[in-house]
Amino acid sequence: MIHCFKFDDKNIVLDVYSGSIHMVDDVAFDIISMYEDTPRDEIKTLILEKYGDRDDVNEDEIEECFGDIEELKEQGKLFAPDKYEKIAIDLTKKNYTLKALCLHVAHTCNLNCSYCFAAQGNFHGERGLMSFETGKRAIDFLIENSGYHKNLDIDFFGGEPLMNWEVVKQLVKYGRSIEKEAGKNIRFTLTTNGIGITDDVIDFCNEEMHNVVLSLDGRKETNDRFRVDLKGNGSYDTIVPKFQKFVSRRGNKSYYMRGTFTHFNTDFVEDILHMADLGFKELSMEPVVASPDSPSALTQEDLPVILAGYERLAREMMKRNKEGNGFTFYHYMLDLDCGPCIYKRISGCGAGTEYLAVTPWGDLYPCHQFVGDDKFKMGNIYDGIKNTDLRNEFAQVNCYSREGCKECWAKLFCSGGCAANSYHAQGSISGIYEYGCELFRRRIECALAVKLDNLE
Amino acid sequence: MTRIVTVNTRDLSKSVKEGGCGECQTSCQSACKTSCGVANQACEKVEKK
């Protein structure tokens, strides 16, 4: 399978199953696009009709192009066959071991963002903080069940994790005290709304946290539309200086400024650029997760506006890169030569198998987005996973098992998409969220265009 | 090749043999938290050239 697309002056051909990417001229673009379903003589006629007035297009040139295509095909770089179905089936039978936990150290929050998928921090349940003892047991549970994995990931999440900061620090110290003996390398990360950032938080996180995710929605009017405190006051003026201080002292360690966009700011590119102009260079901006009847939910009418926004963002990134003022956008980061192997590309995020979320009371869920929905409670950190049927259900879903992914050229970039998005859209974790797929495909096209522009 | 420039990419079919160590980051952990994309993740096994 191939995917041919144009982005401004770039003609790009992606060979889906080899992962090869080719930049081609107009003639090769048309020939490759027609190659599999149009007779060769017909292609020649059509090309000569379209480009016959050009000096570099004649029968010999077209034959040479056919020869190049055949050479790439022989090398397995074009029209490569799909040889991964058996791997996909084997992965559904794999005996998965745990690799990552999302520790919900605080089911409470000091902001009151109405669009929050965590229902303002309590995940539709009671408010509460994780005790050190519970967190310690969760880390032990992770190590006990991590099998051969050396690198383990622990994200401190909420609600707002800084509302339980002393426990976060104690848990990091505990993890560090046992990881070597256990033969593990724990990568701690933290996601915060910024309100509780202090010098102590900055120093500790910059020493210990592999990554931090800092929530900011962009421009003041955008951010303060939803990200308000309990009295309804916007958070922008409080958090921006704290984030700037945090990032300025972070050195080479990674971070993301992460925003959410909604129906109310489909011009979200302005928010991304605003964050870049504030001096932040590692940016992420996510479509809101909301029920369709929510006023903030994205609509069908928003879709073309958002898709055009992604293109505008790509062009602006290319321009700023050339000016030496570039920034990264999470969804446009592609590691082409050292990126994920085919196993990762098929199996995806590991929710419910290698990745679990832990509530403040030690209950286990397939991922943070399912927390609070009793149907998805898998067990707890004391007794282990009890709902093995649910774990098996998560193990079964990948980009080969999902019917909606079969003909999609982007499936090895998204692994079949997010189980929670599918569940919310279709009532099943084995479906797809088509709206999200449309956004994803355009983002990958833009990502490839930006990447290739940087290589030129 | 005059009309086709092939970019250096990881050969996915070769990664059948050399991949699968399972050490890379879980996908949306500590990044987007609301979608699933794996293409931006660095492999823990392949060394940068």
Write a structural description.
The complex is a heterodimer of chains A (456) and B (49). Helices cover 40% and strands 17% of the residues of chain A. Chain A contains 16 helices and 15 strands. In chain A, a hairpin with a 3-residue loop joins strand 14 (379-380) and strand 15 (384-385). Chain A starts with a strand and ends with a helix. The model of chain A has no long low-confidence stretch (mean pLDDT 95). In chain B, 8% of the residues lie in helices and 8% in strands. Chain B has one helix spanning 15-18, and one strand at residues 4-7. The mean pLDDT of chain B is 81. At the A-B interface, strand 3, helix 3, strand 6, strand 7 and strand 8 of A face strand 1 and helix 1 of B. Strand 3 of chain A pairs antiparallel with strand 1 of chain B, so a sheet runs across the interface.
Brief overview:
Chain A is an alpha/beta fold and 456 residues long. Helix content of chain A is 40%, strand content 17%. Chain B is 8% helix and 8% strand.
Features:
A: 456 residues, alpha/beta, 40% helix, B: 49 residues, little secondary structure, 1 helix
Topology overview:
The complex is a heterodimer of chains A (456) and B (49).
Chain A: E1 2-7, E2 10-15, E3 21-24, H1 26-34, H2 40-51, H3 59-74, H4 85-93, E4 100-107, E5 128-129, H5 132-144, E6 151-158, H6 165-179, E7 185-192, H7 199-208, E8 209-215, H8 220-226, H9 236-248, E9 254-261, H10 268-277, E10 282-287, H11 302-322, E11 328-329, H12 342-347, E12 355-358, E13 363-365, E14 379-380, E15 384-385, H13 388-396, H14 411-414, H15 419-426, H16 434-455
Helix pairs in contact in A: 1-2, 1-3, 5-6, 10-11, 11-16
Chain B: E1 4-7, H1 15-18
